[in-house]
Amino acid sequence: MKGRTIMRLEDLQKNNGVGMDELRVTLMEIANNISKSIKGHWSVEPDMRALEPFCAYNINSHTTGYEICRFYPFLDSNGEICISINSRRTNVNCRYESNLVSGIYDLIINSISPLDIA
Description:
Blueprint: H1 9-38, E1 41-45, E2 56-60, E3 67-75, E4 81-87, E5 91-95, H2 101-111, H3 114-117
């Protein structure tokens, strides 16, 4: 399919891991932008399911400090990089495609319940 940029682990490991650095920065920017949108804060936590141990991002409520949403990259059975998004409203996995970062942001922000923010 033309225009698809499905990422595999070997793609992230090329050129001394530049792709992995880009993935980390992308997920960090998503976490930062979502936190600003909901006036919350984010943190990076260990998660054994993640592609790397410290690559799970938590979005936390500013008022309660409770976790609202967690997302992290993982490898599916085909070796493709996917993003798992978990909140009270949703539990979804999507492929990580570098040209669909805004779609990943939308999935995460839409998984957050307005009641979780208050």
